[in-house]
Design goal:
By secondary structure, this protein is α/β, with parallel strands linked by helices. Helices cover about 35% and strands about 15% of the residues.
Length: about 550
């Protein structure tokens, strides 16, 4: 029957997601416009986001005596393998410094040397030391800072344990919407209130999508369990533009464990920046065979190298050797990594650390312009759920937090200029659950999720072939049909909706990979090893 107890909430700005992009946008807009009511949704609590799991740091030019913007720009373009938007790269690199200065002013703590200067780390693909970090939990520190700053603004309301189901468009007013419809407009979102188990309607003048990554489509991922691609899936269903989903970044060095831990524990790239060396199980270095930058080559190169060495030797993992590093310095920089390894019987000062590649970052997503606008009117997007043009075919290490800060700011500034001409659409009907029942077997959801992870890991991983991709798209299509039937007949639950979103993401990744008949950046297909100049974005 219809949800009679559901709420109808009205707000000026709805921000879906409470990580670095979402909260920085909320703070900047609230500071600029105290007259606006800003509502931020998070499907868990404000301490849980992709941001909070980031270890390594945030990249920005800091020491102008040895570094400059052009060097950071060139490193980003090089990592992106020809698909970065040079305009966006310039914007993020040059504006990023000021955004980080603001973050520090808001209370963010980054590690310093004894003389008071910031301790700048270096990671793969960077030509200079420019990574600001806080131990090996930089993301946690940035999330803490933003959570505290948000409390200063009474016009920001953070709603915890609200799961966004779909954005509202003319479709919900009875209009037929296709991908060719020129004036699709967002009016807010339907959201599942986990506390009441009711579906509320949130009407907003402007909506901002900041929902993070998609890592849970793979068995091995460093992403938290909340990284289910919700924002990208919602925008795709609303006929918005999505691009470059085939570029999934696998972090080269997740801690290898046999316990099936989810997510995988990340051994930060900063460890290699500190001097750790990748080695085979018999203690031999191997990165010299793949790139002159050795263990500090860009992530796509290092991940493929590890994958290849595992296939050559039949080993289940490679090793990261930290035994030669300064013990006191290592403990100061990476206390959590050391303790995690110690907890499973590995002493990083005596033993090499077993590592495997794991899904880490989605470089494609919702297509946005330099102001963070999507193809749907009154819908912005920022952070990992976007295809902004910064990352191209491969993200440069520690550029993601920077992107979230820069685009959070840009979105806020653009909303400030445009929102006064936008009115609330109060004609949106409440969610109708008539004819649905409680799901009879939760195993249908859990087993489909498990099957999806398996097929994506085996068929759409680090190295791909045409046959594997065809098999993946066929299997995903079957899962889609089964899950849509379940969704139509059952009452909504977050678990079912997350599965539905993950299946959509799996389709987009697989289809994008099928469309790209070349090997570039993070997408490597042994049937199409050559690289072409004519193919840019794969729009879906």
């Amino acid at each position: 029957m219809k949800n009679n107890q559901s709420a109808n909430i009205q707000t000026d700005v709805l921000i879906i997601g409470a990580g670095v992009a979402g909260l920085s946008a909320a703070i900047k807009l609230a500071k600029k416009r105290s007259d606006l009511e800003i509502t931020v949704l998070t499907k868990t609590n404000t301490g849980e986001s992709n941001t909070s799991w980031a270890q390594g740091g945030i990249a920005t030019v800091w020491d102008f005596n040895v570094d400059d913007y052009q060097s950071h720009v060139e490193d980003t373009l090089d990592a992106g393998d020809g698909l970065c938007d040079p305009e966006i790269v310039e914007i993020v690199v040059k504006e990023g410094h000021d955004r980080v200065v603001e973050l520090i002013a808001w209370g963010a703590r980054f590690d310093k040397e004894d003389d008071g200067d910031y301790n700048l780390g270096r990671e793969g693909g960077h030509s200079e030391n420019r990574i600001l970090h806080y131990k090996d939990i930089t993301g946690w520190e940035i999330q803490r800072t933003l959570n505290e700053k948000v409390k200063e603004y009474p016009n920001i309301k953070v709603l915890e344990h609200y799961f966004a189901l779909d954005i509202l468009t003319q479709h919900h007013l009875g209009r037929n919407i296709t991908r060719l419809t020129p004036d699709i407009q967002c009016f807010g979102a339907y959201v599942f209130n986990k506390k009441t188990s009711e579906i509320d309607t949130i009407i907003a003048r402007t909506t901002v999508m900041c929902t993070g990554g998609t890592g849970q489509i793979y068995k091995n991922t460093t992403n938290p369990v909340i990284a289910t691609g919700d924002g990208i899936s919602m925008v795709y269903r609303a006929k918005g533009r999505i691009a470059n989903m085939e570029f999934v970044q696998f972090h080269p060095t997740a801690l290898y464990q046999t316990t099936g831990e989810n997510p995988d524990f990340l051994i930060s790239e900063a460890v290699r920046g500190y001097g750790a060396i990748l080695k085979t199980p018999d203690g031999k270095e191997f990165m010299h065979k793949y790139d002159e930058r050795l263990s500090l080559a860009p992530r796509d190169i290092v991940a493929r190298a590890i994958d290849n060495e595992m296939k050559i030797s039949g080993a289940e993992h490679m090793y990261l050797d930290c035994r030669h590093l300064d013990h006191e310095g290592f403990l100061d920089h990476f206390p959590n990594i050391y303790e995690k390894c110690k907890s499973i019987g590995i002493d990083a000062f005596k033993d090499m650390i077993p590592v495997v590649p794991a899904c880490h970052y989605q470089c494609g997503g919702i297509v946005t312009d330099p102001q963070g606008k999507s193809s749907i009117k009154q819908l912005y997007a920022a952070g990992e759920c976007t295809c902004s043009g910064l990352h191209g075919a491969n993200r440069l290490a520690s550029n993601s937090l920077l992107e979230g800060l820069v685009f959070g700011h840009r979105v806020a500034m653009d909303i400030d200029k445009s929102i006064d001409g936008v009115t609330l659409n109060k004609e949106i009907p409440d969610w109708n659950a008539e004819g649905t029942t409680d799901p009879k077997e939760m195993v249908l959801i859990t087993q489909s999720w498990k099957e999806l992870k398996e097929l994506m890991s085996y068929y759409v991983g680090i190295v791909r072939t045409d046959v594997r991709l065809k098999r993946a798209t066929d299997r995903v299509a079957l899962l889609y049909q089964e899950t849509e039937r379940l969704y139509t007949e059952s009452k909504v639950s977050p678990q079912l909706c997350e599965l539905r979103n993950l299946i959509t993401i799996a389709f987009l990744v697989s289809k994008g990979a099928e469309m790209r008949k070349e090997s570039r950046g993070l997408h490597f297909n042994t049937d199409h090893k050559e690289k072409f100049d004519y193919l840019e974005k794969t729009f879906l």
